[in-house]
Amino acid sequence: MTSHYVATVPVKFTDNDGQERTRFQRVGAMFRNTRNGDGSEFFSLKLDFPVAVSELVMFPPSSKEPHD
């Protein structure tokens, strides 16, 4: 099982031959975590640079949230 994922943003550029290409710039990492109380999983996204926040934590949708 992967312990983390690299968070990237796509950056488009034109190479020396005039071809449009995409590179992926690292902006942080996402980690899988387990909650101590009930063992449920959640994810932490740690950013490599300061923005309004330096970490976002994602949880699976609850059963109360509407599904798309």
Fold and architecture overview:
It is a single chain. The protein has 68 residues and is mainly β. The chain has one domain (4-59). 0% of the residues lie in helices and 54% in strands. The chain is built from no helices and four strands. A four-stranded antiparallel β-sheet has the order 1-2-3-4, with no helix packed on it. The model has no long low-confidence stretch (mean pLDDT 81).
Outline of this structure?
The protein is mostly beta strands. Helices cover 0% and strands 54% of the residues. It is elongated, with a radius of gyration of 17 Å.
Please render the helix and strand layout as text.
Layout: E1 4-14, E2 20-34, E3 41-47, E4 55-58
Antiparallel strand pairs: 1-2, 2-3, 3-4
Observed structural traits:
4 strands, 68 residues, four-stranded antiparallel β-sheet, single chain
- In whole angstroms, the N-to-C terminal distance is 28 Å
Number of domains: 1
What structural category arises from helix and sheet content?
mainly beta
Task: State the share of residues found in helices, binned by percent.
Answer: under 10%
Low-confidence stretches: none
Which oligomeric form is depicted? single chain
In round numbers, the mean pLDDT is 81
Q: What's the tally of helices?
A: 0
- Write down how many β-strands occur, each being a DSSP E stretch of 2 or more residues: 4
Radius of gyration, taken over Cα atoms and rounded to an integer in Å: 17 Å
- Beta-strand percentage? over 45%
Order of helices and strands: EEEE
